C-alpha cells in the first residue's frame, strides 16, 4: 500500500535562508569541520579510484592552472593596453596592431610605415598636423575611458574600482555575491585594458589582484578539495598573489604581498601555491616577451656606478618627502570621495567621460605624459647614457627638472580624483610614477650640484668620477617611498622593486626610502589608503594588526539590542518562518525556555532547512507549518505532539562563551585568533546575548569616531576661548588708551 501523499508547501522561508546579502561572515570553525569530514570520507575510498588519483596533486595542479591563466590574461591585457594607448596617437599602416616602437623597430630616423593621425589625415609637413593630432588624441582618450565605464555599468558594477580592499575582506572570511563571478572578471579585464590605455591616471595592478581572486575562485569549483568556503579562500589568495606577480613580473613579491596584505594567518600551503602560481605566470610572460627585452625583468637597470654612503641621508630625506606627499594624497582623495559620493551617484559614466576629457587635455600639453604610465616609469628608472633616445634625456638639466616637476604636479590631482571613479583603477603604478618623477628631479638636482662643486668635502667619495650621482636610482627610491606613503606596503614592496629592476645592489637605498616614508606616515598619524577605504565603505574586515585600547566590556557591545531565539521544545515551522520574515539571519541561539534562559547552543537556519527538507521526503505524512520541532537533547519528546521532529543533533553546544564583563580587547583577540562567526555571552550558563564579528567592528568604529569627535570639539572649544580672550585684551587695550 503506497504511503499517503506529502503535505504541500512544507517550508517557505527556510528554503531561502542561504542568502544573507553581501559580506555575510564565514564561520571558519564550521569550514574546518567540513574539510575534516571531506578528508575522512576520502580516506575510506578505494586507493586507485579516479577521485584519489586527481586529488593527490590537486594543490600543485590548481596553482599551475591559475598561474597559467593569469599569465595568458596578463600578456593579452598588456598587448591590448599598448594598442589602446598607441591608437590615440597614430597607426601603423602595415600592421595596425603594432605600437610605434615595434612598427619602427630597426629604423633609426625615418619610419614610413607609422603615421600620426595628423600625418594620416592632413599629410606630412602640413600645418594642420598638430591640431589634427590634438583632436584625435583627445577624442580617442575620452571615448575609450567612457566605454570602460559604460561596460562596467552594463555588465558588472563590481568591475569598477581597484578591488584590493574587497579581496582582503573576502579572504578574511566574508561572502560577496557575484563579486568573484565570471561576468565580473570578464568586465574587469576588458575595462581595465581601456582605462589604463585611455590616459586616466590609474594602474592595472590593483585590478589584477581582483582578477586573480576571480580566477582562483572560478577554478576552485573544479577541484573537489577546494569546494568548501575555507579552502576556496586559499585558492583565491593564491590567485591574488599570482595577479601581483604577473602585474609586476615579481613572483616572490606576489607571495609576500599575499602574506603582508591579504592573509591574516600563516599558511605554508598557501605560500607554496602562491609561489608556484606566480612562477608559472611570470615564466609564461617571459616566454611571450611582451616587453621586448629578452628577459623576465620589466625594468632592467644597470647604472654606470654604485651608490655612495654620503647618499644615505639623501635617500632618507627623499623618503620623508614622499611619505608626506603620500599622506597629502590620502587626505585629498578622501575629501574628493566624500564630496563625490552623494553628488555623482547617478552620473558616474558622465563623470568618467569628463575626467577622460580633462586628463587628455592635460596629457597632451604636459611633457612626458602622452604615453602609458608604465612606459614613463621605465624611462624614469633608466640612466642617460651618451646618444640616448629617451625623451627625458633630451635637453638641458634645468629644463628637464622643470618638466619632471610640472608633470608630477599635473598628474597628482588627476590621480587623486581618478581613484574612486566608476572604472577599474589601481593606485600602485600612479604612486610609483609620481614618486619616480619627484625622485628623478631630486637626483638630477644632486647630480648637477655634485658636478658643480665636485671639490667639496661632501663629495669626497666621488674622486675621479664626473658622473657620481645616478638620477635613475633616486627615481626608484622616490617611487618606492611614494607607494609606501600611500599604501603602507614595506617588505613586499622592497622585494617587488628588486624584482622589477633585477639588481640587488640598489636594495639598500630602496629600503631606506621605504622605512623613512613609513616612519613619517606613522608620525603624522594618517592611515594607509586601503585602511581608510575599508573604513569609508564600512567593509567588515578585521585587521590582524587591529588594537582596541578602551575600557569597554562585552555588555556595551550588545546593550539595547533584541535577539531572536528558539526554545528547546514547542517550536513550530510556522514560528521560525515568522522570525525569518522579520530578518534574514544566519541562525538562532537555543534556550531551554524563556524563563530560565539556560543556553543550550546555536542552530543555523540553513541546517534546519536541509534537515526539514530531508524529513519531508522521508517522513510519513511529510512536514508542514504546524510541525513541532525539538532542539533539546535532555527534554523528552512530548507524547502528545503528533508531528514532532527532533533537530537536537543540529545544535552546536561547543560555541565560545564569554561573560558580560569580558573586556572588548579580549573579544577582539578571540575573533582574530579563533575565527568564529560570533561569540555567545552568558552569565552562569544563562543567556545574556551574542556578539557577531560585524557587531564588534561596528562598535569599535563608533567608539573611535566618538573619540575623534570629542578631540575635534575640544580643539574647537579651545580655539574659541583663545579668540574670545584676544577680543577681551583688545577691548581692554582700547579702554586704557
Automatic annotation (TrEMBL):
<keyword id="KW-0472">Membrane</keyword>
<keyword id="KW-0812">Transmembrane</keyword>
<feature type="transmembrane region" description="Helical">
    <location>
        <begin position="235"/>
        <end position="259"/>
    </location>
</feature>
<dbReference type="InterPro" id="IPR014743">
    <property type="entry name" value="Cl-channel_core"/>
</dbReference>
<feature type="transmembrane region" description="Helical">
    <location>
        <begin position="134"/>
        <end position="152"/>
    </location>
</feature>
<feature type="transmembrane region" description="Helical">
    <location>
        <begin position="53"/>
        <end position="73"/>
    </location>
</feature>
<keyword id="KW-1133">Transmembrane helix</keyword>
<protein>
    <submittedName>
        <fullName>Voltage-gated chloride channel, putative</fullName>
    </submittedName>
</protein>
<dbReference type="GO" id="GO:0005247">
    <property type="term" value="F:voltage-gated chloride channel activity"/>
</dbReference>
<feature type="transmembrane region" description="Helical">
    <location>
        <begin position="312"/>
        <end position="334"/>
    </location>
</feature>
<keyword id="KW-0813">Transport</keyword>
<dbReference type="GO" id="GO:0005886">
    <property type="term" value="C:plasma membrane"/>
</dbReference>
<feature type="transmembrane region" description="Helical">
    <location>
        <begin position="414"/>
        <end position="438"/>
    </location>
</feature>
<dbReference type="GO" id="GO:0005769">
    <property type="term" value="C:early endosome"/>
</dbReference>
<feature type="transmembrane region" description="Helical">
    <location>
        <begin position="346"/>
        <end position="365"/>
    </location>
</feature>
<keyword id="KW-0868">Chloride</keyword>
<dbReference type="GO" id="GO:0005794">
    <property type="term" value="C:Golgi apparatus"/>
</dbReference>
<dbReference type="Pfam" id="PF00654">
    <property type="entry name" value="Voltage_CLC"/>
</dbReference>
<dbReference type="InterPro" id="IPR046342">
    <property type="entry name" value="CBS_dom_sf"/>
</dbReference>
<dbReference type="InterPro" id="IPR001807">
    <property type="entry name" value="ClC"/>
</dbReference>
<keyword id="KW-0406">Ion transport</keyword>
Amino acid at each position: 500500500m503506497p504511503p499517503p501523499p506529502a503535505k504541500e508547501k512544507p517550508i517557505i522561508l527556510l528554503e531561502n535562508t542561504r542568502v544573507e546579502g553581501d559580506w555575510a561572515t564565514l564561520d571558519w570553525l564550521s569550514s574546518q569541520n567540513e574539510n575534516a569530514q571531506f578528508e575522512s570520507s576520502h580516506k575510506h575510498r578505494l586507493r586507485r579510484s579516479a577521485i584519489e588519483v586527481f586529488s593527490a596533486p590537486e594543490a600543485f595542479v590548481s596553482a599551475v592552472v591559475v598561474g597559467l591563466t593569469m599569465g595568458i590574461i596578463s600578456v593579452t591585457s598588456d598587448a591590448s593596453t599598448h594598442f589602446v594607448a598607441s591608437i590615440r596617437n597614430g597607426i601603423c599602416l602595415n600592421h595596425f596592431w603594432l605600437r610605434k616602437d615595434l612598427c619602427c623597430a630597426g629604423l633609426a630616423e625615418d619610419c614610413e610605415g607609422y603615421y600620426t593621425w595628423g600625418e594620416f589625415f592632413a599629410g606630412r609637413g602640413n600645418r594642420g598636423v598638430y591640431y589634427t593630432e590634438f583632436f584625435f588624441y583627445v577624442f580617442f582618450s575620452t571615448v575609450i575611458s567612457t566605454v570602460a565605464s559604460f561596460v562596467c555599468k552594463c555588465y558588472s558594477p563590481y568591475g569598477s574600482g581597484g578591488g584590493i580592499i574587497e579581496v582582503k575582506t573576502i579572504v578574511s572570511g566574508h561572502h560577496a555575491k557575484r563579486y568573484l563571478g565570471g561576468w565580473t572578471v570578464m568586465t574587469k579585464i576588458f575595462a581595465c585594458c581601456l582605462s589604463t590605455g585611455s590616459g586616466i591616471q590609474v594602474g592595472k595592478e590593483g585590478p589584477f589582484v581582483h582578477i586573480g581572486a576571480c580566477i582562483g575562485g572560478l577554478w576552485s569549483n573544479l577541484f573537489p578539495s577546494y569546494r568548501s568556503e575555507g579552502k576556496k579562500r586559499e585558492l583565491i589568495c593564491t590567485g591574488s598573489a599570482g595577479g601581483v606577480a604577473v602585474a609586476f613580473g615579481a613572483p616572490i613579491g606576489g607571495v609576500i604581498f599575499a602574506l603582508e596584505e591579504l592573509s591574516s594567518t600563516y599558511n605554508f600551503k598557501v605560500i607554496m601555491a602562491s609561489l608556484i602560481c606566480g612562477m608559472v605566470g611570470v615564466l609564461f610572460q617571459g616566454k611571450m616577451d611582451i616587453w621586448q627585452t629578452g628577459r623576465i625583468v620589466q625594468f632592467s637597470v644597470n647604472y654606470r656606478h654604485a651608490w655612495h654612503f654620503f647618499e644615505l641621508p639623501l635617500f632618507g630625506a627623499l623618503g620623508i618627502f614622499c611619505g608626506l606627499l603620500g599622506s597629502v594624497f590620502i587626505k585629498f582623495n578622501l575629501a574628493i570621495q566624500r564630496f563625490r559620493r552623494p553628488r555623482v551617484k547617478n552620473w558616474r559614466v558622465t563623470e568618467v567621460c569628463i575626467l577622460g576629457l580633462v586628463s587628455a587635455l592635460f596629457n597632451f600639453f604636459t611633457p612626458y605624459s602622452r604615453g602609458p604610465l608604465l612606459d614613463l616609469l621605465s624611462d624614469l628608472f633608466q640612466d642617460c647614457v651618451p646618444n640616448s633616445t629617451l625623451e627625458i634625456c633630451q635637453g638641458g638639466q634645468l629644463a628637464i627638472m622643470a618638466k619632471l616637476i610640472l608633470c608630477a604636479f599635473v598628474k597628482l590631482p588627476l590621480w587623486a580624483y581618478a581613484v574612486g571613479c566608476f572604472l577599474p583603477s589601481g593606485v600602485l603604478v600612479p604612486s610609483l610614477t609620481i614618486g619616480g618623477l619627484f625622485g628623478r628631479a631630486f637626483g638630477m638636482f644632486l647630480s648637477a650640484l655634485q658636478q658643480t662643486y665636485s671639490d667639496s668635502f661632501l663629495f669626497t667619495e666621488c674622486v675621479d668620477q664626473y658622473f657620481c650621482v645616478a638620477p635613475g636610482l633616486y627615481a626608484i627610491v622616490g617611487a618606492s617611498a611614494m607607494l609606501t606613503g600611500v599604501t603602507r606596503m614595506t617588505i613586499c614592496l622592497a622585494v617587488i622593486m628588486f624584482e622589477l629592476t633585477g639588481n640587488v645592489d640598489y636594495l639598500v637605498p630602496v629600503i631606506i626610502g621605504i622605512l623613512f616614508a613609513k616612519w613619517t606616515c606613522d608620525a603624522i598619524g594618517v592611515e594607509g589608503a586601503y585602511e581608510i577605504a575599508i573604513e569609508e565603505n564600512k567593509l567588515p574586515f578585521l585587521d590582524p594588526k587591529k588594537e582596541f585600547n578602551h575600557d569597554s566590556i562585552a555588555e556595551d557591545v550588545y546593550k539595547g539590542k533584541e535577539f531572536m531565539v528558539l526554545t528547546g521544545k514547542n517550536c513550530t515551522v510556522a514560528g521560525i518562518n515568522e522570525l525569518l520574515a522579520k530578518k534574514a539571519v544566519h541562525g538562532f541561539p537555543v534556550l531551554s525556555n524563556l524563563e530560565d534562559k539556560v543556553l543550550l547552543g546555536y542552530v543555523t537556519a540553513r541546517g534546519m532547512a536541509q534537515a526539514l527538507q530531508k524529513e519531508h521526503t522521508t517522513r510519513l505524512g511529510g512536514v508542514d507549518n504546524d510541525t513541532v520541532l525539538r532542539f533539546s537533547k535532555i527534554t523528552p519528546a512530548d507524547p502528545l505532539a503528533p508531528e514532532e521532529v527532533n533537530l537536537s543533533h543540529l545544535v552546536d553546544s561547543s560555541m565560545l562563551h564569554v561573560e558580560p564583563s569580558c573586556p572588548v580587547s579580549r573579544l577582539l583577540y578571540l575573533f582574530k585568533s579563533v575565527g568564529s562567526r560570533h561569540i555567545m555571552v552568558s552569565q552562569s550558563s544563562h543567556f545574556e546575548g551574542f556578539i557577531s564579528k560585524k557587531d564588534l567592528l561596528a562598535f569599535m568604529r563608533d567608539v573611535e569616531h566618538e573619540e575623534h569627535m570629542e578631540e575635534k570639539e575640544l580643539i574647537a572649544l579651545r580655539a574659541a576661548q583663545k579668540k574670545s580672550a584676544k577680543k577681551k585684551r583688545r577691548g581692554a587695550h582700547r579702554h586704557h588708551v
